Amino acid sequence: MARVVSLFPDLLFGSKVQGMLTAAGHGVQLAAGDAAGQVTECDVLVVDLTEDDVARIETVQALREVGAVRAGTRLLAFYLHTEVDVRKRALAANFDLVVPRSRMAREGAALVDGLVASAGTSSSRA
Predict the structure, then answer these.
(1) pLDDT tens digits, 10-37
(2) Cys bridge to 24: 57, 71, 85, 109, which one at CB 3.0-4.6 A?
């Protein structure tokens, strides 16, 4: 079981992903307010880049800089499939896995499982 924190402004989609991950045995927390205090002990941080993508990428980078995102925490982001530049920015910011929102909706639990299993190995940039 992985400890997952999700940074989702879309609470409806966030609840859907939370339900999927919980059903797969993961502990999931939707981050609100002070994200720094919530991501410290997670195994996977899931970030919604469908809106305000630059701000969220910068937020994750800032959390890394202050040590709120510990080494070994896997970063999973999703974006709108039409926004290819968002994917490129997230990969440049060293997210471990960046996928279209539709794939997150279908395969979210498997994606988290794969990231947890690959912890300590090379990044997966599909």
Answers:
(1) 888 889 999 999 999 999 988 765 565 6
(2) 109
CA separation for the pair 59, 31 (Å, rounded): 13
What are the tens digits of pLDDT across the range 77-106?
999 999 999 999 999 999 999 999 999 999
Q: How far apart are CA 68 and CA 79, in angstroms?
A: 23
CATH topology of domain 3-101: Rossmann fold (3.40.50)
> Is the pTM value of this prediction over 0.90?
no
Token representation of residue 23: 């059903």
Listed in sequence order, the residues at least 6 apart from 83 whose beta carbon sits closer than 8 Å to its beta carbon are: 49, 50, 53
Domain ranges across the chain: 3-101
Cα 24 from Cα 43, distance rounded (Å): 15
